[in-house]
């Protein structure tokens, strides 16, 4: 089967919805990817927008459910397809959907810390022993580090994932 791979960079525009399909769980959410371009006078003007429904299965359900929510800047990678259906009035409709293979926070627009046994990251802190109250899944969380703001000054305080 031919599948169309796609990477979408954008923001989650609704609260992720988790449900069971048969004996599996799925979590789905909508991502808006908005472009913008420089006008002749140097200002920014809005470009086209893409809205896509992202479906996450398997291990993605746990990570996405624990770490991401409405407004979070994300990068989603997967295979895109068109879902066709009939609306309540009997009209034939279609929507663009993605079966995600990877989803994560966009680190150009958020600061996160990965919590996973065995991963020590850039800090030399040892990882907690396996089974010390963790599931083993990577869970991005906000960190309390100084961040340079647009004016070059440092801001301090916890940053949400949707920074």
UniProtKB/TrEMBL annotation:
<dbReference type="InterPro" id="IPR012340">
    <property type="entry name" value="NA-bd_OB-fold"/>
</dbReference>
<protein>
    <submittedName>
        <fullName>Single-stranded DNA-binding protein</fullName>
    </submittedName>
</protein>
<dbReference type="GO" id="GO:0003697">
    <property type="term" value="F:single-stranded DNA binding"/>
</dbReference>
<dbReference type="InterPro" id="IPR000424">
    <property type="entry name" value="Primosome_PriB/ssb"/>
</dbReference>
<feature type="compositionally biased region" description="Low complexity">
    <location>
        <begin position="130"/>
        <end position="143"/>
    </location>
</feature>
<dbReference type="Pfam" id="PF00436">
    <property type="entry name" value="SSB"/>
</dbReference>
<feature type="region of interest" description="Disordered">
    <location>
        <begin position="114"/>
        <end position="163"/>
    </location>
</feature>
<keyword id="KW-0238">DNA-binding</keyword>
């Amino acid at each position: 089967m031919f599948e169309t791979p796609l990477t979408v960079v954008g923001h989650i525009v609704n609260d992720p919805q988790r449900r069971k399909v048969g004996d599996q769980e799925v979590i789905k959410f909508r991502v808006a990817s908005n472009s913008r371009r420089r006008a002749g006078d140097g200002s920014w003007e809005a470009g086209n927008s893409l809205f896509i429904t992202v479906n996450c299965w398997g291990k993605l359900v746990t990570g996405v459910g624990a770490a991401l929510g409405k407004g979070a800047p994300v990068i989603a990678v997967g295979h895109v397809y068109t879902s066709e259906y009939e609306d309540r009035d009997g009209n034939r409709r279609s929507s663009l959907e993605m079966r995600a293979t990877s989803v994560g926070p966009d680190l150009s627009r958020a600061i996160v810390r990965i919590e996973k046994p065995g991963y020590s990251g850039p800090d030399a802190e040892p990882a907690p022993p396996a089974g010390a109250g963790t599931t083993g899944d990577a869970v991005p969380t906000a960190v309390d580090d100084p961040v340079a703001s647009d004016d070059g000054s440092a801001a301090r305080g916890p940053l949400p994932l949707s920074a």
